[in-house]
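Hey L., structure's done. Input below.
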Amino acid sequence: MTLLVLGKTPDSFESQVELIDAGGVSQELPLTFKYFTSLEYAKLSDGWGEIEAKYEKVSSSDTNEAVVRETFNQYGEVLHQILIGWGIDAEFNKKNIVKLCDEYPDAFATIVDKHRCQLLERRLGN
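Output:
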């Protein structure tokens, strides 16, 4: 049996998510996530409200395109905080994160949920 060691958390961890393309075909996306303790994650996710508030300044004169662009920019900021890299043949940067969210509408929720579950709901085995 391995003894626990406190204070030696990893910097990152590998995982993957399943995204569904427009044709309904499953695509695997390998990801490298930043590691956060439970308290660090709580502090990080508190900050997401500040990001959201920045984009809530949508007026009735804004186009649907403008609203979606602002939403994807918000998604890009959040994902850039929790990811270190990915297994896509494209540079890992905010611009390409936004492009991923545009092309795969389920990407944001799927990635954030996977990260949260891996950090906060870890289980051994099945």
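The radius of gyration is 16 Å. The mean pLDDT is 87.

-- N.
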